[in-house]
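User: I'm curious whether this sequence folds into something compact or stays loose and floppy. Could you predict its structure so I can see for myself?
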Amino acid sequence: MTSPLISYKKLIERNILIHDNLQENFIQSIDSLYKDLSKYQHEFNKIFNWGWLPIFGSKDRNIPKSLYTYGGVGIGKTMFMDMLAESVPKISLRMHFHELMRDVHLELNRSRKSSKGSLENPINKVVDKICNKKILVCIDEMEIRDIADAMIIDKVFKRMFETGLVVFTTSNRPPSDLYKDGLQRERFMPFINLIKKKMKVINLDIPRDYRRGRIVGEKIFFTPIHSNTTKSIDEIWRKLTDDAPYKSDYLIVNGRKIRIPIAAHKVARFTFNDLCNQPLGTNDYLQIALNYTTVILEGVPSMTVEQRDVARRFVILVDALYEKKCVLICSSECLVEKIYSGSDWQFEFQRTISRLVEMQSNDYLRQKHTIF
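Assistant: Here's the prediction. I'll summarize afterward.
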């Protein structure tokens, strides 16, 4: 199999990637892990032959150091994770964090029903089943928002480390910011300490969003709406998400769940009705702007004074996205200047029109998404 470093250099030679010193330093770390995994594989397999005794904390085991990598969106974290997983396909398990927790909760429910409460530590059994004797577990986009996940994630990772697994995790946040301001966060703190103890934490502090750069110079505001409009937006979606499988998501704002119909790689896709015909306000839109670097908004209508409330929400939405330097990709029934023809929001809409025009510029697209 090709090592991650060789794969990286080939992509540069083919002009698919632009050389970046920080990226190269990071790929060197991943390549070292790749080599350590090759040496560790034989010893790990012996554990199973001897009955798979837990080896947590054992100093005589040469377990490669697990990795926790964090940084902004579109800087290559997922790409490098995939390079490592693809270099050792027989011994690696690669999944999204939400997929891992979905499977853990599902298996826990099954285990509890089948054992009728007699199983002492069902999480150990569940983790063993999911990991299925793999050596490397790659978990992409760790983002803990659910209290149910927060209360058991420590036990999940403890079991993986206990059985000698090597874990590679990516996140947009440093460990100390995980589940920030979450309910009963004090019970979550042991997990942060576990990460710092068992994993090498790397800040991939690259200012450039490479995926965002793919649409610089391209049309991102489409009018009028027709079949080719959808095709164009679908193509932008593919560029920004690397054809990743999409899923629905949600954000919790003041105890309420805000549904995200389609999301992948920090890109969220909505219809106009999803965002502006619902009882949403400034905090809701700011949370969307904080959590997604790009918002695709389809079907913006021409609005009159009769739709003043809807128009007001649209103004607030654009303000929130602009403030956080989100990319806004739109399909609209009419030109920017004609979206609203009422009189009572004319002043606010002049600012909105100005911002919508600026948000299509290359200078705006090159700015970094603001998460604070």
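Summary: Residues 4-203 form a domain with the Rossmann fold fold (CATH 3.40.50.300). The chain has two domains: 4-203, 210-365.
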